[in-house]
Amino acid sequence: MHLKNPPRENSISLKGAVQISNSSFLVYEDACGKMFLKTGNEEALHKSVVQSMIDSNPYIAKILKRFHIKPLIDTKTLKDLTGGHMNDTCNIAMGVYSILSEDIKEKVDKGTLKEASMLHDLGKVLIPSKILNKPAKLNVRERKIMNIHSTLGYELLKTQGVSEDVLNLIKYHHQNWKHSGYPILTSESKASDLGVQIISIADKYSALREARVYRRRLSRIEALLILYREVREGKILPEVYQALVKYAEKYDS
């Protein structure tokens, strides 16, 4: 029997994500082209892969330098995201998608939506924990830093073989129907508005239903009422909001 040497850590790349029985797994490819799955508990592997992403895209270092951020990978945040919020956001997004009318579903690719919703907040691994976990309102500078997490996620995954459609949903998941979110949409932007709507509302609902250091966990009704304000402001499509309400009544009561 001949044992093969394991691939070097920097030869492993993140290719996407899949969901199995309500749990999310990151999809990796090793130097031999073999695909394998790892959960959010594989912190050492995830950290090495994120570091390889940074090394393979010089633009990431430029973004961090512009905001005076040290390129540190927060493994606790990475574990919490992959095992908690991103998985939850995916479940909600797919639940909302399943309830939408068939004519709306035809405008959104289900596989792309699933993968993007599971990877949407990956960029937060480079946001300083003192900002992510600040038990008070962020100041202007801190808010600007927080807002680059979606662009950082896009840039981290850009060299990993993730599809352009998934990348664009990750980059613009904080946009809205009025296009007043972030980052600013340009004429070259190619994100699916409907896909963005679904991931955005799932992301917000998941966050509102979680206890955060700066506030308590909100009830289903409280969270839905907050999101309804955005419907009235024209930021969320009524059809997408109604699908979330039906999903929440059935699965989050």
Give a structural overview.
Helices cover 53% and strands 8% of the residues. It is mostly helical and 253 residues long. The protein has one domain (9-251): Hypothetical protein af1432. It has a 3-stranded antiparallel β-sheet with strand order 1-2-3. Helix 1 (43-56) crosses helix 3 and helix 3 (75-99) packs across helix 10 (193-208). Residues 1-9 have low confidence and may be disordered.
From the structure above, extract its key features:
disordered N terminus; 12 helices; three-stranded antiparallel sheet; mainly alpha; globular; 253 residues; Hypothetical protein af1432
Instruction: Tell me the number of helical segments per DSSP (H or I, 4 or more residues long).
Output: 12
What distance separates the N and C termini? Answer: 55 Å
**Which structural class fits the helix and strand makeup?**
mainly alpha
Mean pLDDT: 89
Task: Write a concise synopsis of the structure shown.
The chain has twelve helices and three strands, in the order E-E-E-H-H-H-H-H-H-H-H-H-H-H-H.
How would you summarize the topology of this molecule?
Blueprint: E1 13-20, E2 23-29, E3 35-38, H1 43-56, H2 58-66, H3 75-99, H4 102-105, H5 110-119, H6 129-132, H7 140-146, H8 149-157, H9 164-171, H10 193-208, H11 220-232, H12 238-251
Antiparallel strand pairs: 1-2, 2-3
Helix pairs in contact: 1-3, 3-5, 3-10, 3-12, 5-9, 8-9, 11-12
